[in-house]
Amino acid sequence: MLLDVDGTLLDSNDAHALAYQEALRAHGIEQSFDRIRHLIGMGSDRILPMLAGVDPESDLGRRIQEKKRAVFRERYLPELRPTRGARELLEHLRARGLKPVAASSASGKELHMLLKAANVDDLVEAATSSDDADESKPAPDIVEAAVLRSGLPQEQLIMIGDTPYDVEAARRAGVGIIALRSGGWEDEDLSGALVTYDDPADLLAHFGSSPLAD
């Protein structure tokens, strides 16, 4: 069982966009919230070139990323809340013998904080992050790393995610995906998913008829 975190288990997508906007502005780069928000779900390796033409490995790119992480951690993270039913869904998955493996575009250090904020850090047995991949979503690298971490073949796994980038990454990795609307995307944006639910609570309420019940 593979799980995205931001927008899937933690209501954090808007906060990431606001933190990016402030970090860019601090370095003289203006971008609209809507433009940034549309890219949340990818990693900085993709977001910075697309938003500002900035190489994430350059001095400027590193400064922007450091500022974004600091703003997110200090201003927004303490106020974030889990998506509805996040912990209950993971408890149910574990009770059925499924091993939750996080597959996130966040860095390893940030991922631990996100899982704790989502109140599921004790339920996720393994995780892969941007530290484990050459490219972030929608490239399949992070999902492929999570498949290896799970110890199961990809055809026996299903991922849960909330962005078009999760859907594309999972499909490119040969993994079926359940999409959630909790990340703020419309159903047409999430086309390619096996099925779409409102949030973890909605998936749990319909678990018996979901692909996870097979």
In terms of per-residue confidence, which ranges show pLDDT below 50 for 5 or more consecutive residues? none
CATH hierarchy class name of the largest domain: Alpha Beta
- Total separate domains: 2
At CATH's second level, what is the architecture of the largest domain? 3-Layer(aba) Sandwich
- Note the quaternary state here: single chain
Give the CA-CA distance, first to last residue. Answer: 13 Å
Strands of the widest sheet, in order across it, are: 3-2-1-4-5-6
Distinct helical segment count? 9
Q: Estimate the mean pLDDT confidence.
A: 96
- Coarse morphology: globular
Number of strands: 6
CATH homologous superfamily of the largest domain, by name? HAD superfamily/HAD-like
Description:
Helices cover 43% and strands 9% of the residues. Helix 1 crosses helix 4. Strand 4, helix 8 and strand 5 form a beta-alpha-beta unit. By secondary structure, the protein is an alpha/beta fold.
SSE layout:
Blueprint: E1 2-3, H1 13-26, H2 33-37, H3 44-52, H4 59-76, H5 86-95, E2 101-103, H6 108-117, E3 126-128, H7 141-150, E4 158-161, H8 164-172, E5 176-180, E6 195-197, H9 200-205
Parallel strand pairs: 1-2, 1-4, 2-3, 4-5, 5-6
Helix pairs in contact: 1-4
Features:
214 residues, alpha/beta, Rossmann fold, DNA polymerase, domain 1, 2 domains, six-stranded parallel β-sheet, 9 helices, 6 strands, 43% helix, globular
Sum this structure up briefly:
This protein has 214 residues and is of the alpha/beta class. 43% of the residues lie in helices and 9% in strands.
